[in-house]
Amino acid sequence: xxxxxxxxxxxxxxxxxxxxxxxxxxxxxxxxxxxxxxxxxxxxxxxxxxxxxxxxxxxxxxxxxxxxxxxxxxxxxxxxxxxxxxxxxxxxxxxxxxxxxxxxxxxxxxxxxxxxxxxxxxxxxxxxxxxxxxxxxxxxxxxxxxxxxxxxxxxxxxxxxxxxxxxxxxxxxxxxxxxxxxxxxxxxxxxxxxxxxxxxxxxxxxxx
Length: 208
Prior knowledge:
The protein is α/β, with parallel strands linked by helices and about 210 residues long.
């Protein structure tokens, strides 16, 4: 089933489909937001300033597995792949089949894995692609609007899957993700990026 057929089945307005065709990835992202705003949490993808700030502390030379929760249309995917060593891998996990289907069609890098699933199951998913641990996990999930209990479960599973010296990188529009991180990680650094719509809170939770 292609994107237009899926839109018809779900009864999306014709205007939304026109936006998708006219704006490319941004249109796909916006459509995903309309379908499930509690899980996407933003109308627009993150700005280049957010991408640069979030990825700057990563030790790329020693990164073999980088994981992202809620990749959307892949705003972070290519920047991560550009920085990864040749033997590194990028795993993205999303509950929205629209985004996973889009990423599988548009990113052909052999180091890239797009999985339809929940971040709560990150440990099993990481093992399914041949790894025991992740070096870094990046998340733009809207922790403040996730169903009860899901946020803490994701933070706990993430803390278990990240190797010593790795980090949980979060960006969102409230400080909830950083608050959860403090319960499971020994050190959390924080920041804010004003060059984004809207400005967002940044967090780097380190597994010392």
